[in-house]
């Protein structure tokens, strides 16, 4: 049965292993997404200022995971207050792709956000990642802003209203 579990930093490597595997695969395809050197416990804590770590399971098998933040000073500086959750490092394990786990994880995040009184879920993704854009739009996320990044790519900021 599918379920999501918040994990402590003592289990961060379980999530980071999935992220590293996906990052390596994307690098091999020529569509790099994450800097492998920063996919460490220290790297994510430093970048995201004490994020909440989550793993998704199908029965006992790890199928994906993500980070949740209650504020995002990197990309959503203009949004203050306590009304949103911010998703980062959303990942489905490579050997579990195409089985609907991304949708199940996003549905879980929506329920969780509502249960803790949030009004929005926010995230960002590169515009050239059409598969991400399609997935988020299918989950009713709306694009709210485009940002030009230092690497020349366009970052899309999107949100879901609960």
Task: Explain this structure.
With 162 residues, the protein is an alpha+beta fold. The protein has one domain: Aminopeptidase (3-Layer(aba) Sandwich). Helices cover 31% and strands 33% of the residues. The protein is built from four helices and seven strands. A seven-stranded mixed sheet has the order 1-2-3-4-5-7-6, with helices on both faces. β4, α3 and β5 form a beta-alpha-beta unit. The longest helix is centred in the N-terminal third of the chain and has 18 residues. The two termini are 25 Å apart. The mean pLDDT is 93.
Radius of gyration: 15 Å
For the terminal residues, how far apart are their CA atoms?
Answer: 25 Å
Structural class: alpha+beta
What would you say the CATH architecture is? 3-Layer(aba) Sandwich
Q: Give the fraction of residues assigned to helices.
A: 25-40%
* Uncertain residue segments: none
Would you state the CATH class? Alpha Beta
Order of helices and strands: EHHEEEHEHEE
Number of H- or I-type helical stretches: 4
The total beta strand count reads 7
**What is the name of the CATH superfamily?**
Gcn5-related N-acetyltransferase (GNAT)
Strand content: 25-35%
Total domains, how many? 1
Molecular shape: globular
Query: According to CATH, what is the topology?
Result: Aminopeptidase
Strand order of the largest sheet: 1-2-3-4-5-7-6
Largest sheet: 7 strands, mixed
Mean pLDDT: 93
């Amino acid at each position: 049965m599918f379920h999501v579990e918040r994990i402590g930093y003592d289990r961060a490597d379980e999530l980071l292993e999935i992220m590293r595997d996906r990052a390596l695969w994307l690098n091999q395809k020529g569509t790099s997404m994450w800097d492998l050197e920063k996919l460490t416990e220290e790297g994510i804590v430093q970048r995201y200022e004490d994020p909440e770590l989550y793993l998704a399971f199908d029965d006992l098998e790890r199928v994906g995971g993500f980070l949740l933040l209650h504020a995002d000073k990197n990309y959503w500086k203009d949004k203050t207050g306590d009304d949103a959750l911010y998703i980062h490092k959303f990942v489905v394990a490579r050997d579990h792709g195409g089985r609907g786990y991304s949708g199940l994880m996003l549905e879980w995040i929506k329920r969780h956000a509502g249960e803790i009184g949030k009004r929005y879920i926010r995230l960002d993704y590169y515009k050239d990642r059409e598969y991400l854009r399609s997935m988020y739009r299918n989950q009713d996320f709306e694009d709210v802003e485009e940002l030009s990044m230092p690497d020349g790519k366009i970052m899309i900021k999107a949100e879901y209203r609960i």
